[in-house]
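I hope you will forgive my troubling you with a question about protein structure. You will find the record immediately after this paragraph.
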Amino acid sequence: MVRIFALLLLAPCCAIAQSAFPTAFPDGATPMTAEALKQRITGKVFTIIPAAGAQMRVQYQDTYAFVNSGSFSDSGKWRVEGSSVCIDWQKIPGGCSEMRTVGDAIYTKRASNGEVVIMQPK
C-alpha cells in the first residue's frame, strides 16, 4: 500500500519533468537582421524536433511556408519582422517566432509555446 501511495505522489512529478523544455536561447545566440534572416531561410527546408510531439518539416518559399508533421500539413504566408518570422497559417493559429543564431545553427522560439528548438537544415 505504501508503494502505491508513493507512486501516486511521484507520478505528477514525473509528468512535469517530462514536459519541461528550454525556453531560453543558448549562450551566445544572437539575433539576425531582417534581411539576413530572410536570406538564411528563403528556399530552404528545415526539420524541427520538439521536446514533446512529432517531428516537423518546415519549408520557406518566397512568400509561403509549409509545415508537415506526421499526416498533418498546413501552409501560410510568412514575413520577417525584425529578428522574428511571422506566419499566418491557414489551419493552426499563426504567430511570430523569434530566431537567433549560434555559428551556423538557427534557433527559434516557437510562437505556440515558447519552446526554443534548433532548425536543422535538410
The beta strands are 30-31, 44-48, 56-60, 64-69, 72-81, 84-89, 95-102, 105-109, 116-121. The first strand starts at residue 30 and ends at 31.
